[in-house]
Design brief:
By secondary structure, the chain is an alpha/beta fold. Helices cover about 25% and strands about 25% of the residues. The strands form 3 sheets. A 7-stranded mixed sheet has the order 6-5-4-3-2-1-16. Strands 7-8-9-12-13-14-15 form a 7-stranded mixed sheet. Helix 7 crosses helix 9 and helix 9 packs parallel to helix 10. The longest helix is centred in the C-terminal third of the chain and has 11 residues. The protein starts with a strand and ends in a 5-residue tail after the last strand.
Length: about 300
Amino acid sequence: MQIVFLGTSGSWPTPKRNVSAIAVKRGPEVILFDCGEGTQRQFMASPLSFMQVNRIFLTHFHGDHFLGLPGLIQSMNFFGREAPLEVYGPSGCEALVGQVLSLGHFRAGYPVHARDLAAGDAVDGGEYTVAATEAVHTVPALSYVLEEKERAGRFDLERAKALGIPPGPLYSKLQEGQAVTVGGKTFRPEQVLGPPRRGRKIVYTGDSMPHAALVAAARGADVLIHDATSDAALEDKANRYGHSSSRQAAQVAKEAGVGQLVLTHMSPRYEDPASLFNDAKTVFDRVVLADDFMEIEVPYPD
């Protein structure tokens, strides 16, 4: 699993940073979180293809988080897309996407489906889910938890041999959860597999103040991508506008016990965002300041 940061600025683009868009590549699929203006161009400058995007999750409808949607939909059309595109967001998402698709001579030559989500709703992606959770912002907003489903336990080769199961295709069947029969004797997967192993977990806050529900949702995440609009000196101002400081983001990461914290959505006032990084680092050591096109590999936990 790979995370590519396509836009890391808050409110408006800067010469070095585009506005919010985060792509998660999992196998052949790309899952997009937020779609600020110019996101399709950011894709073109990245190692990813926007044609691999099947699902888009919008956190809220401030322009720096969704205004790239019309351009992305149309670019997909120009590139000959035929596969359906799913767009999710808080209440009003269905209406917004309907308005986008009705603009002038705007056309999408493929199905575009939109769905409103509320905190507690989840989208099943097959081997993973994306759950919506509460965000505290100045408009209706959501945070998202991408979590892979449990994987099979490790295959115990020595145990399989001791049971008399011959190497080969039967091992694969057991690992896939199927029982096998050898010499009239049936063997079940649990006889040769260890306990189930958890998948990877990524949490994206979108724009939000820190709050208890967010800490609970981020518990044990491998990566927490958190709003870090300001440094500690401007924390009160950030909170008035429904945002977090980098220090507060680090406090959420510490309380939730996450593996890594990534700071994003930096205010354009910070040409040098060193103060944001330094404020977070005093609270939580495993912190990274996102830049546009930064890539993070998320390994399996075991």
